[in-house]
Every structure is written in C-alpha cells, then in structure tokens.
Amino acid sequence: MYADVIVDISHEKLDKPFSYRVPERLEGKLEAGMCVTVPFGGGNKLIKGFVTGFRETCPFDPDKAKEIRDIAQDSVGVEEKLMALAVWLRKNYGSTMIQALKTVLPAKQTVKRLAHRTVRRTLGREETLSLLGECQRKKQVAKARLLSALLEQEEIPYEWLTGKLGVSGQTVGSLERAGALQVVSRESFRDPVKLESGPEEKKKLDEAQREIVEAVMEDLEAGTPRTYLIHGITGSGKTEVYLELIERVVKKGRQAVMLIPEIALTYQTLLRFYRRFGSRVSVMNSMLSPGEKYDQCQRARKGEIDVIIGPRSALFTPFPDIGIIVMDEEHEGSYKSESSPKYHAREAALEVARLHGAAVVLGSATPSLEAYSRAESGQYRLFTLSRRLTGGSLPTVYTVDLSRELREGNRSIFSRKLAELLADRLDKGEQSILFLNRRGYAGFVSCRSCGHVMKCPHCDVSLSEHTGGRLVCHYCGFGQPKPARCPKCGSGYIGGFKAGTQQIEEKLREMFPRARCLRMDGDTTKTKDSYSRILSSFANREADVLIGTQMIVKGHDFPGVTLVGVLAADLSLGAADYRAGERTFQLLTQAVGRAGRGTAPGEAVIQTYQPEHYAVVYAAAQDYEGFYREEMLYRELLGYPPASHLLAVQIFGGDRQKAYLLAERLAQSLRESLPGQAALMGPAPASIEKLNDIFRFVFYIKCREYDTLVQIKDRAEELLKQWQPQESVQFDFDPVHTL
Ligand code: ADP
Ligand code: ZN
Ligand code: ZN
C-alpha cells in the first residue's frame, strides 16, 4: 500500500504528491487528509506532509520508495468535504495543492491555552446606575461607557473593552478599586460571555421579513435550497432575518456559518448573536491565536457549537452538516482573498453549500454587480427590504461642482456649500463627518477646470502617472506622455490630486479654530486599538468633526451625525480599475447614509469635478437600480465581469527585465493557442510596479466562459513547469484588488 503525500513546502515545484510506502502498523489508521511526518530529500530530513490519496502500486521502483514515519502529533484529519473544497479551490483559482490545503485547514496544530480575562460587574443594577450618573456629570466618558456596557451585560471579555469599546486598562483598574467591577481570569475562550437574562431580544418579524424566512425554510425543507439575495438598506431588518433563519436551521440539528467583513462586526451585532445562541456560537477573528482557532475547529467538529461568525475563513469551519451560510455586506472587497488561492468567499460559499446541501443568503445595501445580475437572471432569488426600521429619514444630498467653484474664485478644498453647512453644525453642536475616498487612488490625472480624466483609449480605465511624467494603462500597457494642457478644454490646470486627510484637518482648523476634530486614516490607526478608540470617542461626542478615509463609512453608527461631506468623489472614480464606478457608488451611498441616522434630519454634500458621472448622480439620488443598469451596460460593452470573466496573470520577480521578459513570453505563448472567444491584453506593469524590491507585471485574459479561463490557467501552469523560472506567477480570477 502506498500513500500520496504532499510535503509542507509551498512551492510550485513540489506541487505534486510523492508516493510513500505505508508501514503495516499504520495501515487502516491512515486517512486521506491526515498530517504525517516523512523523510525527504537526500538527507532524509523529517518533514510534515498531507496524505492526498492511496495507491496499490508504486509509480516508480518500489525499492526506492521511502516509508511514512508516523502520523504527525496533534494532526487533524481533514474531512472529505474540506479536502474536496481544497481540490475545488486549486482547480478554480490556481494555486499549489498545499496552498489550497492550508486555506481550508485550521492554521496550526498545537493548542496553546491562553488565560482570558473578563470584566464582571460586582455592583447591583441600581448602584451601577447611580455611579454611571456620577461619571456622566463629571464627564468621565470612558468610565461611563464601561459602566453602561456592564449594565447591558454583566460580564465582558477584556479584549472587547480595550478593543471595541476603547476603554483603557487604567479605567478598568480605577473602577475595580472603586469596587464596581472585578477582573476575572479564565482558562480559554470557551463560554466567553455569561449573559444576563435580559429582556427578550427577539422581534416579531414584519411581513417582508417573514416572507424571506418562509421562502428559505420551505426550499430547505424540500431539499432544494437555493441562493437568496436580500437587497436592503442599513437598518431595514436584514440581521433580524439572519438570526431567525439561523435559529430555525439550528433547531433542525444543522449548523450555520455567518460571514461578515471583520471591520463591520460591531459589539452590538455580536451581542445579538450571543443573546440568541449563547455558548453555542463562536466568533472567529484576527484577534484569536492560531491555537484558539484550532480549538474552535475542534469544538465545531465535536458538535459543541452550532454557529460561527467570522470573516471568509469561517467558511472552512469543520462542521458536519451546514444548513445555511449567510454572507452579510456581500459586496465587500475583503471577501476576495489576496493570497493564493485568490478565491472569492461568495463562490466558495456556493461550493460549501453544494457539498452540504445548504442554503446561501447574501445581504447588502449595495449588492455587487455579480450578485445582482444573477438575481436578475433568476439564478438567485431576490428579496428587497426597503423600509428603515430604526426610523430616521434619508438625507438631503447636494452635489457641488468643484470646477465651477474654481471658476467662481473659490480655491479652497471646501466648497461654499460645505463650509456653510459645517459652520451651521458647529453652531448647533451637531456632529459632521468629512470623508476622503482615497481608495484605489493611484495617481490618476484630471483637469481641475473641466473634470476631464485621462483614460486609456483601449480599456476605458484611468491612466496612472508614473515617475518621469508618463501616463500608463495597467491593463494593456498603453502609455503616453503627460499633457501640459487639458486635451478637452485647453486649461493648464491639469494634474494629480494631492489633498490628504492631514491637509484637510489643517484647513479645517484654520477655518474653524474652535472645532474639535478627530482624524482617522492609515497614520492614526497604526496601533491595534486606535481604530475603535477613535470611533468610540466620536460616538461619545468627544469631537465635532471626524475626518477620514473609507474606514469611517463602515460599521459603527453615529446617531449624532447630521452632516456628511465627501471631499472629492473623483478620487475613487479615477482608480485605474474597471470597478472604480461600482466602488465609488458603494462608498458614496454608504457615506451619504451616515447622515441622519438619529432623529434630526441629515444632509450630505458630494464635492466632485464630475457632477454628471452616473455613479455620483445615482448615489446622490440613492438609486441602486439606476446605477446597476448603467454600470452593467459599461461592463457589457467592454467585456468586464460579470458580463464576462477576467483572469489576471501576475508575475513577480526581483529583476525587472527578467520579470518583464517572462510576462512577455508567457503572454505570447498563451496567445498562440488562445481560443477564439478569449482575448489577451498586456502585459503591463502593475499599478504599484515595485513593492518591497519585487517587480510586478500583469496581463489579463477576458472570456465569457469561466472554464475556458481555467484551461488557459492550466496551460500556463504547464508552461511554467517546463520553464522553471525564478519568478513566481499567481492567478487571480475575476480580480477585485488591483495589483
Ligand atoms: P440591518 O441588518 O438591515 O441593518 P437590523 O436587523 O439590524 O437591520 O434591524 C435594524 C433595527 O431594527 C434593529 O435595531 C432591530 O432590532 C430592529 N428590528 C428589526 N426587525 C424588526 C421588527 N420586525 N420589528 C421591530 N424592530 C425590528
Ligand atoms: Zn479640461
Ligand atoms: Zn489600456
């Protein structure tokens, strides 16, 4: 008996199983997917590997066959389903088998038990309330925040306090000395929270919500589960639907996976799940150590939990019988993996659901074009929730033409309208958010006078400015010198955007010296907790204005905000990427929706050089359908996903010339055998051509048939196996992140 073993080294050359003899003592014990130790190479060094299958005869001289040493300590047998998933990932996204296995396997095999601390309330409800009142009078906001949290829930994990709530260790210490609380150490993350039997949280679903729940359950019970898309604005009751569905599925003895972009997982949402499912729910996030993640997998395997909440990797929780997979904020870019295999959680969820016979429920206020077009074609079942259950009305939106401001003599980064409304809010003591959507910003060039953006004539995406003043297309490699005057209106005001959040903060302080402002961007959120600290400080009204990048438009709710200003909608419109319009629409819609969540009505100002751009127009009108139709036309016309499929082949190498030559050679060879319906563009330098001293090139292949792209990828892998280049090559199907 021989076993095929993949050794634990992530390199293309080793991406084939080696055959090992199975010693008699292990026969019958060994299963596919197990982790074993094997001697490897000339020195017979002992390394780890995964068993991928068995064979009766040795494919080479049996005398040369080595023997499996042992089953690795603490090894995890991958269930067949996970194994099948790894094979599917490898086939559809292109990676080594070992990378695919590592994606679906719990990160590490050793469990290190960490003591976990929680904070427990020791005072009674009344006494805590009076202490809270005292802290509020003394404006001790952090203490007040901690006390109100403890009123909601008697015991809270320490990390939540310092993380989500932004409470310092000092604050906890001083309240502990005052006898209000106690810090308790626990052995592990199990039973992370003891919940107070508070008022029953469960809401009676309204008709629209009930219709969704009934439809999904009916299909599930009939054994014909489908994929469902819930299109509903924030506050329209989607989470309540998820909770109900998950509860019903769990009652039937099956398990549930709740996918959520980590950044959007708020304390409130977590509480809602804990209240419903108690210790039967577990949360997966980046704060867990690999040992803890492994521990959670073990609990799932043993049937100790029914529900897992987490980012895309929660999909690979080794549950025996998943009944439902919910994916909230389905449009989020973080659902696409940025390392090989570069899978999309939506597609992987569909595959997990197929293997388990589970339903998939997608939810979003601004669905991806992929999901919405499938709903349109009847592949998914579409539901719409259009009523905001939390009250508050949609804000009034003003679109300001920045080139007109310039013509009329205002050179400031604040339009007159925005400045006027800001002054008004500061007067009234209401809060404002200033948003700089810098995402995808890659040095594009536009005219400040007429708004004209320099675009590639072949790909209709923005050209990016490279050093030396050349403009380059990152899809096809087209290049031209940067013009001195705008080709459309002849103005000399042509160039790149330079404004950053810091500059905005300075200008704001200049104009409104008394305004208290907070800034949130890559610089101010370097430490682990600073992100939540800034958010909770703003939520506690410790500042009047919050300035930030896209980080601030997600998750947290700020009822005190009545004004949102988008400083330059063009920044994300100019991204050198075919999804620029979609991202801009999503960001603007989210940003605008931040105003007026409370009782006071809200207003939003969108500043832009392209006031007529459809992404701006439809976002201002909060019209998803309209945006969808227009964006879909553009995708159809140019053959971008979801109208067609796109494969990015990315080449990474330390030597610029050699990396480029490999890209050229690979592209050329693929071109020669390219099927008629496919088209190859490039190669071109990546938008960040050099990162950490590694040069990056990319070329794209468009084709309507996904499977054809998979075949082209297989062909590329074959060629690379023959050529054995030093450079590494990665594949990205229907890319979301541009390189
Ligand atoms: P979403 O997930 O779409 O943002 P939620 O499910 O969080 O919406 O609901 C928004 C708010 O409305 C929550 O405070 C929730 O408790 C409340 N809510 C949801 N469904 C109902 C309902 N059927 N009746 C009353 N309140 C509800
Ligand atoms: Zn111009
Ligand atoms: Zn181009």
Label the CATH architecture of the largest domain.
3-Layer(aba) Sandwich
**Number of discrete helical segments:** 22
Shape: globular
The kinds of small molecule bound in this structure are: adenosine-5'-diphosphate, zinc ion
Q: How many strands appear in the DSSP assignment? A: 30
Classify the secondary structure makeup into a structural class.
alpha/beta
Stretches where pLDDT is under 50 for at least 5 consecutive residues are 9-13, 108-113, 187-198
Q: Could you state the CATH homologous superfamily of the largest domain? A: P-loop containing nucleotide triphosphate hydrolases
Residue fraction in strands? 15-25%
What do we call the CATH topology of the largest domain? Rossmann fold
| Main beta sheet | 7 strands, parallel
For the record, what CATH class of the largest domain applies?
Answer: Alpha Beta
Query: Which whole number gives the mean pLDDT?
Result: 84
